[in-house]
Amino acid sequence: GQQLVESGGGSVQAGGSLRLSCAASGYTDTRYCMGWFRQAPGKEREGVADIDSDGITRYANSVKGRFTITREKAKNTLYLEMNSLKPEDSAMYYCAANFGQRRCYPYGNVGTVRYYYWGQGTQVTVSS
């Protein structure tokens, strides 16, 4: 079946960088909408960024200019490059995907697209 597996989380000091990866397996459709979410303890899940099969990217205002979402087609892997990290970026980060869906934006804003497939999450901790 289709599966998403995240990796790359860890602990870093404020101002540092991390790159998260999300390896997707079990699908062949070239159309997709994929995104990153995060959830900190006691807080609601927040959409961070998304990308679609036309390469259109969107970001939450809180990460714009600091985070970059990309996808490497050859490896079927989604990435989230996170720079200038802040303590408030600490959270469990999840990737999510819809396959067979060419675009993200007709289906909602970053964070409101309803995804069918989810990864298990990877923890990011930023210390001050």
Give the arrangement of secondary structure elements.
Blueprint: E1 3-7, E2 10-13, E3 18-25, E4 32-39, E5 46-52, E6 57-59, E7 67-72, E8 77-82, E9 91-99, E10 117-118, E11 122-127
Parallel strand pairs: 2-11
Antiparallel strand pairs: 1-3, 3-8, 4-5, 4-9, 5-6, 7-8, 9-10, 9-11
What would you say this structure looks like, in words?
- The model has no long low-confidence stretch (mean pLDDT 95).
- 0% of the residues lie in helices and 50% in strands.
- The protein is mainly β.
- Strands 2, 4, 5, 6, 9, 10 and 11 form a seven-stranded mixed β-sheet that branches.
- It is globular.
Q: Percent helix among the residues?
A: under 10%
Low-confidence segments: none
Structural class of the helices, strands and pairings? Answer: mainly beta
> What is the ordering of alpha helices and beta strands?
EEEEEEEEEEE
Beta-strand portion reads: over 45%
Terminal CA distance: 41 Å
Rg value: 14 Å
- Count of DSSP E strands? 11
Based on Cα principal axes, name the global outline: globular
**Overall residue-averaged pLDDT value:** 95
In DSSP terms (H or I, runs of 4 or more residues), the helix count works out at: 0
For the largest beta-sheet, the strand count, sense and barrel status come to: 7 strands, mixed
